[in-house]
Design brief:
single chain, about 100 residues, mainly alpha, 2 helices, about 0% strand
């Protein structure tokens, strides 16, 4: 029987080293593609969008219409609130006259 105090045989970690090495190479390749890529690239990018100005004008019109609608809604709500306050003041005044006349 083996003695538990005897040192165990050393196992090889070559599989782990192979996996770690592969990961390092993969990260290096990804970094080169992302940051270095092609040495002949001058970095200039030109993008042309046909009909883009019409889309921007339509979007601006839509935003303007939405803003106007929102302003109208706020104005209507303010007018309704003012009318309610006036009605409440009239009702309070009528109630005060009724109590005074009794």
């Amino acid at each position: 029987m083996s003695d538990p105090r005897e040192p165990h045989e050393r196992s090889s970690n070559s599989t782990l080293a192979f996996i770690v090495g592969g990961l390092v190479v993969a990260v290096a390749v990804i970094a080169w593609i992302m940051y270095g890529g092609d040495a002949g690239d001058d970095g200039d990018i030109n993008v042309e969008v046909e009909g883009g100005s019409e889309a921007v004008e339509d979007a601006a019109d839509s935003v303007g219409d939405a803003a106007q609608d929102a302003a109208d809604s706020v104005g209507d709500a303010a007018q309704d609130a003012a009318d309610s306050v006036d009605d409440a003041a009239d009702d309070a005044g009528d109630a005060a006259e009724d109590t005074t006349n009794q």
